[in-house]
Amino acid sequence: MTARSVRPFLPALRSVDSTLAVPVPDRLRLLEELEHDLEAVTQRYVRDGHTPEEAHRLAVEMLVPQGAALDALEHVHRGWFARVTGGLGQLQLRFVERTVLVGAMALVCAITAGAMARADLFADPSPFLGAVLAVGLLLVVAMARVGIDLWIKSDLTAAGPQTRTVVLLSAAILLIGVVGAGVDFYRLTVVMAAGPADPESTVLRWIRQDAALVGTAVGLALTGALCWFASTQWWALVWGARLEVLGLDRTSAKSSSQSKESA
Amino acid sequence: MSRSDFDVQGFARGIHEVLVLSTLRHEAKHGYQIALDVESDSNGLFRFKHGTLYPILHRLEREGLIEGAWSKAEGRRKKVYALTVSGRGHLEGEADHVEQVLARLIHVVRGPEEAPA
């Protein structure tokens, strides 16, 4: 969409945007449709002999959703998640969400642990592998929450902080893996300096331990990075479209959202 | 139509849906054109205010009775609605339903002897 210089209905669009609780993509489509209809019906009223101010007022009165129309739009545009959970109270919903999240997490962990056990990664693990897997567990939870917020609940506001958590956890996993491999290597040099009975098997054991450690850490961190990339790209796409439809400047909107967060 | 399945409030709500479908009978229209046509075709008896048009349009679209298509001109997107095959069938059924209800209403209000046959 190219920028238009005169957009007389921006205040009305912003008002609808701030009061209509439907997923952002649906809201943007409605706002685009509404703006076109408002401008077209205003022109029609002006052609029919109304003053521009009167035509503007009549167009807003006819088309800008208020009260019951907003409720009806929210009802029409609620996603399948809202439809399924519509009858649940806030506490029940939270309980169901957490149960599903924990169940999904347990399933993912069981599948991953099974695959790792088959690959013999736990046969002789590095002492740091446990820490990598523990943080990895938190990463899976954070990624699941981002996915649920963005693509199931369509709640962009809630997904923002979660994406930062994903990045932090991915970085922590990578750090633990790399530093752990470094420490293991240092311990190996100390052992080798002491002249072990079987130096070849000592080195092979170290290679096996740290290959498992670094491989797991890099794999988890890359998965987290991919999740972060996909979610932030989606977030930026939807949010950017919203700013464009509402005629808001990206920098001012960003500073306003930052001031909201700090408040 | 049996006596027990008639819902007066639902009927009143459904009138606007029927009006929207009927204005799309011959050609595809933008939302504002539908609102203006309903108002002019009914001599101002029915009119959409405070955005009540959009929930109806979007619900009909979701139910597959009308189809919305986006077009782009001069850097802006606009949406136009057309009646689908199933919407046309639904409209015919609803038109018959409205006719029956109004005939019975007239029958009651005017009395059997004055009501049209």
Record the SSE blueprint.
The complex is a heterodimer of chains A (263) and B (117).
Chain A: H1 10-19, H2 24-47, H3 52-63, H4 67-77, H5 80-85, H6 90-118, H7 129-152, H8 156-193, H9 199-245, H10 250-262
Helix pairs in contact in A: 1-2, 2-3, 2-9, 6-7, 7-8, 7-9, 8-9
Chain B: H1 8-23, E1 29-30, H2 31-41, H3 53-62, E2 66-73, E3 76-83, H4 85-110
Antiparallel strand pairs in B: 1-3, 2-3
Description:
The complex is a heterodimer of chains A (263) and B (117). Chain A is an all-alpha fold and 263 residues long. Chain A is elongated. Chain A is 81% helix and 0% strand. With 117 residues, chain B is an alpha+beta fold. Chain B is built from 4 helices and 3 strands; from the N terminus they run αβααββα. In chain B, strands 1-3-2 form a 3-stranded antiparallel sheet. The model of chain B has no long low-confidence stretch (mean pLDDT 88). The A-B interface holds A 1-2, 4, 29-30, 32-38, 40-41, 44, 61-70, 72-73, 75-77 and B 30-33, 35-36, 47-55, 58-59, 62, 75-79.
Q: Beta-sheet strand percentage of chain A?
A: under 5%
Total count of helical runs of at least 4 residues of chain A:
10
Proportion of residues in helical segments of chain B: 40-55%
Percent of residues of chain A in helical segments? Answer: over 70%
Shape of chain A: elongated
Question: Distance between termini of chain B?
Answer: 18 Å
Largest interface: A-B, 30 and 23 residues
From the helix content, strand content and strand pairing of chain B, which structural class follows? alpha+beta
**In angstroms, what is the radius of gyration of chain A?**
27 Å
> What is the count of β-strands of chain A?
0
Low-confidence stretches of chain B: none
The computed structural class of chain A is: mainly alpha
- Count of helical stretches of chain B: 4
Instruction: Please indicate the percent range of residues of chain B in DSSP E strands (runs of 2 or more).
Output: 15-25%
Average pLDDT of chain B:
88
SSE series of chain A: HHHHHHHHHH
Distance between the termini of chain A: 33 Å
Written as H for each helix and E for each strand, in order along the chain, the element string of chain B is HEHHEEH
| Mean pLDDT over all positions of chain A | 84
Rg on CA atoms of chain B, Å: 17 Å
